[in-house]
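Field notebook, page 227. I keep forgetting to write these up properly, so this time I am using the form the group agreed on. The chain and the ligand, NJP, are recorded exactly as supplied. Prediction of the bound pose follows.
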Amino acid sequence: QDRVMLITGASSGIGAATARAAAREGHRLILAARSTERLDTLARELGPEKVMTVTLDVTSLAAQQAMVEQALERFGRIDAVFANAGRGGSPGGFSGADHEAWRDMILTNIYGVGLTVQATLPALRRSRGHMLLTGSAAGRATIPGSMYGATKWAVTGIGYNLREELRGSGIRVTLIEPGMVDTPFFDEPPEHALEPRDIANAVIYAVNQPAHVDINEILVRPTPPVE
Ligand code: NJP
């Protein structure tokens, strides 16, 4: 039977590339984000019979629980969850950043990931499935003035602490930690960046391991340009 993967932040960038890669691997998919139109376009591309789209904001637990309920009704199981939705903050550092943008980012990147974990864990316990979280190279490094980096340190912490909570459950936890990736995350295309599919490849590598292999973290950075 085809495996079932749920992806948040699936409407663009890394999430959409992972949906494409997982579809090629034969996964059935639950794709969630706020943009119905972009999700529906992706579902048409991948084949609607194997894809369920859910328009939601990850900061709503009720919406995420309803998504899981619908997914179980349609597919009967969830084998992998990629908690990937996230956003950047605003420039200005700790002294000058827009605090409203901070609040939205903290809610999405930390609280939203926590809610995805909470909403999907009952299904993953039944399937002895796989939880993957999009952290960041910024969740390991010191970046002056970056509240965004701080939210990704929190995602690193969620991954480590969740793995301990789930010890003995058979559920694997993988932190996917991208460096710079060329996605709509940036207003201008960044130079010397990875492609979204480079990160999708890391997700597929982790989920394709046999059950006794727990890939804890994958840090992927672009190769520095040749001088
Ligand atoms: O960016 P983008 P990425 N509720 O903007 C969704 C991390 N990362 O693929 O809701 C639900 O193309 C949004 O969809 P929509 C980054 O922190 C990136 O680069 O329709 N969904 C879209 O599908 C993030 O965690 C880089 O607007 C929400 C998706 O999230 C992840 O990679 C480096 C939402 C964002 O896709 C994917 O970002 C790195 C909400 N409240 C980590 N808010 C990089 N690009 O360089 C947003 O280390 N979304």
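OBSERVATIONS:
- The beta strands are 4-8, 28-33, 51-55, 80-83, 130-134, 172-178, 217-220.
- The radius of gyration is 17 Å.
FOLLOW-UP: compare against the apo run.
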